[in-house]
Amino acid sequence: MILHGYWRSGAAYRVRIALALKGLAYEQVNHDLRTGGQAAPDYAALNPQRLVPALEVDGLIITQSVAILEWLDERFPEPALLPAHADGRAIVRSMVQTIVTDVHPLHNLRTLKALRQDFGASEDQVNAWMARWMTAGFAALETLIMRHGGDFAYGTTPTLADCVVVPALYSAERFGVDTMPYPHLVAAARRAAALAEAAHPSRQPDADA
Ligand SMILES: N[C@@H](CCC(=O)N[C@@H](CS)C(=O)NCC(=O)O)C(=O)O
To answer: Exposed end of the chain (fewer CB within 10 Å): N or C?
Structure first.
């Protein structure tokens, strides 16, 4: 398996966590988002959306981190990253979507670039924008994790929710967002991150020194 990613990409980090939790070996091809590597012709041919991650397996190219996560869980079922019961799977997926659909697109690189370049936003305004959407998502997740969490975001074993929450917390901390109001989210994410240390951005081959 070849994971196309970038060390600081939250969406690629989601996939690295699942790969680590499942103990799967893979190669990395990294594309520096700071220099527009995601738009280079070779990669754009692979992923027409020009976003990382993408997973290449025997000629199959899967884009979209959640599609990759679900594929990994179906192809490599142990340890399972979705609960056995449909009710539990629905809760985990709603946690995943809270971040993936409703928060992350509002602060990914191209969105922030548009705010700065096309709408003249200052750095303070960009930071306030990010904090606004991250905290809205975290507040909802904190309630869901209080309701359904055990050691992890859902229950007592890691799930796809943790694969998503860990990078979301990493981004929030990177951008100085106050995470004190979300103690259950932070505790669950710390536990899951500790199980997938090899996936951490700072441990990737393309990470800044
Ligand atoms: N929904 C996509 C989002 C992917 C995404 O936004 N990736 C970011 C990095 S975290 C990216 O490639 N950004 C490049 C850009 O915005 O130009 C997924 O989950 O895979």
So the answer is: C
